[in-house]
Automatic annotation (TrEMBL), chain A:
Entry-linked InterPro entries: ABC_transp_perm/SBD (IPR051204), MetI-like (IPR000515), MetI-like_sf (IPR035906)
Annotated protein name in UniProt: Osmoprotectant transport system permease protein
Record has Transmembrane as a keyword: yes
Organism field: Kineococcus aurantiacus
GO cellular component, one term: plasma membrane
Sequence similarity: Belongs to the binding-protein-dependent transport system permease family.
Transmembrane intervals: 29-50, 57-82, 88-111, 155-176, 188-208
Compartment list: Cell membrane; Membrane
Membrane topology: Multi-pass membrane protein
UniProtKB/TrEMBL annotation, chain B:
Keyword annotations: Membrane, Transmembrane, Transmembrane helix, Transport
InterPro entries given in the database record: ABC_transp_perm/SBD, MetI-like, MetI-like_sf
Keyword Transport among UniProt keywords: yes
GO cellular component: plasma membrane
Name of the protein: Osmoprotectant transport system permease protein
Main location: membrane
Organism field: Kineococcus aurantiacus
BP-aspect Gene Ontology terms: glycine betaine transport; transmembrane transport
One Pfam family recorded for the sequence: BPD_transp_1
Amino acid sequence: MDDTPYLLDGAHWAWSTSGSIPHLLLAHLQYTALAVLVGFVIAFPLGLLIGHTGRGAFWAINAGNAGRSLPTLGLLSLLVVYMSSQGFLPVLIALVVLVVPPILTSTYAGLRSVDPNAVDAARGMGMSSAQVLFRVELPMALPVVFGGVRAAVLQVVATATVAAYVGLSGLGRLLVDGLALNDYGRMVAGAVVVAVLAVVLDLLLGLVQRYAVSPGITGRGLRRARGTRSVAESGAQSSELMSATPGGTS
Amino acid sequence: MNSVLDYLRQNQSTVLDALGQHVVLAVVPLLVGVLVALPIGYLGVRFGWLYHPILNVSGIVYSIPSLAVFVALPYVLGTKILSPVNIVVALAMYTVALMARTVADGLRSVDPALTEAATAMGYKRTRRLLEVELPLAAPVILAGVRVAAVSNISLVSVGALLGIGGLGALFTRGFQLFYTAPIIVGIVLSIALAAAADLLIVVFQRAVTPWTRAVMGA
């Protein structure tokens, strides 16, 4: 082993070398994006339905609790052995199981946190049920929903490292190979890249949230003028407690 | 189903050892984390300008993946990569990040009229904190402890990727042997452990905050 830290060695960043950091990073992001997308498509409509109708709330709340206590590594091992497959499907299922609870509970909780007076007013103005949902409830719930999506993305970014454990690519390769080769420098490199990726993605999503949420909800602009306390601030607090798992990987 | 029972019969002591390790690896950092978070959360309320920095640092600590922390800590602490100390320190860190904010929010949620009443009755700052504010903040704080406990129990399993014991070792063993029994045992025990810890904290909360029940019953 040479003395250059793994991360600073240009060879490990070359696009032409297969298995170099950019390749692993790209694979990692692909796994993450696919899992979040599939999880979102399942959880978001379900959360809207439960939050809007108020029916099935029991399921939404318990999904959050169950999701937090289910060990992803165990689920993944079980899926791989059970399906006798080393492919991406077991990893995708395990990651989707991780994504669904935070998005489902935050969508539900977000809709529930909307001021009932606003909903009544919208109904009184003659809005249909769908109009109430998409024009009033969802925009007002958006900060809380975003909290759930951010938590889900963080968890998946952290947990996608287990793909390497079952022989796939992604940043987990640096950790798993480093451990196997007794190359601690490689493991530290993997840890640093995953950590930086998680923090950067969270910041980016925070930025998206800033511009996606209506200024009428966040109180941006208003706050400076009148010192109004924003809905986003008070909403985000409860949602974070509900949906976040520290450190992602579970 | 039979294979699970057979596995349990033949590996009773291994499974019990793993369960014991898991409990220790989850509970020690929980206790340490809560004890460290209490004064930090208090400082966040006492000195208001500290509240947002605490929130921001917690958020960043939160977003660092646990496996990355497990790997990086030996470098920082000078421990061996296989040392359970890494897991304990990492989970204590997450617990502090979660709880510092919760403690601050809990103390902030106490009705100022009540603290003023306590002051008027001659309670000094420390006594007021310990006998009035902290008990009234207990429901919020303990809600945070429930989240921390459950996620700690779940995060311990990740240590198995590095070869550290606990129920996660059953996952890696089952995976290597291509055998579902140990994996199922590990998953069931880990969920049961989380449920038991959650229940225990709820019971504790009911015991230390009898007034919340009286209000709900009325």
